[in-house]
Design brief:
Elements: H1 2-12, E1 38-42, E2 45-49, E3 81-93, H2 100-107, E4 111-114, E5 126-132, E6 142-150, E7 164-168, E8 183-188, E9 199-204, E10 214-220, E11 227-230, E12 239-244
Antiparallel strand pairs: 1-2, 3-5, 3-12, 4-11, 5-10, 6-9, 6-12, 7-8, 7-10
Amino acid sequence: MMGRIALTACLLTACFGPSAPSGTPCDPQLGNCPSDQVCTAQAGNFVCLPPGSVTPDAPVAIDAAIDGPIALDATPPDAQTDFVFAATIAECTDPTAPDPAQCRTINGNDQLLVDGQDTTTTHPWHAFLRFATGSQLSGKTITSITLRLTATDAADAMSANSGEVWEVAAFTLAGLSTAEPTQVELLAPAQGPIVPLQTVDFVLPATIVKPNGNVFLGVFPTQNDGTNYWNNDGLTPPVLLVTTL
């Protein structure tokens, strides 16, 4: 009788031993925590904890101001920049009797002729161009120079040869009426056959252009069948394209 009473008392007072301490590892599928604890995920593991004592990991705070795209400079340091210089002089002359006005009178006010033997006069025509550069080239590295000429819409613009480009001695418009400037150095060879309204690019040495300077060019025929380019009064005047870094 006394043994049965003791057993009952033991059941009422949980004589089987104290509860497992909080934080003991557990398996949520087995439910192997004491009755007063819950198998709970904590810091990436499952442990036994009293109900209500769990402090879930705080969510990672996300900055409301998400970084936007990286701002790029409008002109990257290595970007290429093209400068276009219009010719300050673009005239043709007959080397046997130099006179730009006479070239315009005979061939047209907007024509710049390069011909070894003109069918009308039987004389040659040479073209001369001067370009002035400004301070915008200061501090820049010049990488390429291109003389761009455009053939006119005249039937005489059709030619087997474009002519070749030379650097010539300095000249003025008035000076072209008395003598042609001396050829200094061949800069670009002839480009082959030409058709009306064709754009012709002559690639020149980058060293011929300086800031705040002048470039003096002559276009000379290499055969009798010449071509006509637009001068400064034409639809597409001559330009010098300068590419820099």
